[in-house]
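Entry 14. Two folds queued back to back today. First construct below, sequence then structure tokens.
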Amino acid sequence: MLAVFKKEFKAAFTSPIAYIFLFLILIFSGYFFAAATLGADRADLSPVFGNVLTIFLFAVPVLTMRIFSEEKRQKTDQLLLTSPKTNTQIVMGKFFAAYIIYLLSLLIFVVFYITVCFFVQPPLGIFIGNMVALSLVGAAFIAIGIFISSLTENQIVSVLTTFGIFLLLLFIDGFKNFIPSGSVFNFLNYVIDAFALYGRYSDFTIGIFDFSGILYYLSVAGLFLFLTTRVLEKRRWN
């Protein structure tokens, strides 16, 4: 797994992908910080975290689009599939390479917090809650993106499909308003709640550590990583 991690992490920085991802997060989060915190004389970073989650909606598909798609396009995936490494080691190595880059982008929020501390003492609990929430959502997002990347060799298809899924997850809560009341339709509400990734985010943003939310995000990440290993297993046997 370590060899796959090193290869993938290095490849991300020898191509423009990692730089584009980090640039997007830096520019937009800096803008939100200046406008919603410093410009509004606020003592907390909640508006910044709330807005930057939307930026990850666009940025994460860029980060994950090439992870398997590029390997398939260049036919270098055959080297991985015929290597002694297990499917799990391949998937986890690529996942952690992308996830570490994602976590590096979160360091900018530590800089924002320290900057605010020069003027006031912002709520530490809310800051930690938001950081934990973004870390968990990021794990789920990246796992979904890697799974989509494993299904196609076209990076454009990968990024657009991943973005479309993220967009659906963003607005899926609103679909409940169109479901008629009654026990017959309760199942649809349960299905929507199961895919409402953003709905569980709000508790963390106000400093509430919801352990069911932590378990949910880890379960989503684990599910899509497992599905990715099944995709590799099928291709390895083919």
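Second construct, same run, same settings:
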Amino acid sequence: MEYIQANKDEPGDRQCVFCALLDGSVDEERILTRDDHAFVTLAKFPYNPGHLLVLPTRHVGEFADLTADENIAISAYLQVCVRALREASEPHGFNIGLNLGHVAGAGIPEHLHWHVVPRWGGDTNFMPVVGETRVLPELVADSHRKLQPFFA
């Protein structure tokens, strides 16, 4: 929420944060893999350790505008993410989804992105309600080191 609230200007007024990842102007070390059609990155503000995002390489905000090749690449990367997270972190389950449009919860609606969130029994607690914060037992950099071998 800190990121979303800090970026309330019009989408055309700033560079897309996901495109900035690809061109290396910000946090490029979060990217785990990429090709001509899609890429996988660690979430900057993860819901859980290992929270991944799968995105089209092309800047596109409408699901219906994806090409067949982009759909295939995204689907394949979603499978790779689940396999990698299962082996690296042994989660009990996953939340996998796309929020299409701002009112549907997309914080950055102009560039499609699927969330792959590993889940463990008891991974939620009172901190988000009482402390207005999340407690994550793993740094994003540590998640990157753990997961990178699965995307090499």
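Quick look at the second one. The first strand starts at residue 31 and ends at 34. The first helix runs from residue 2 to 6.
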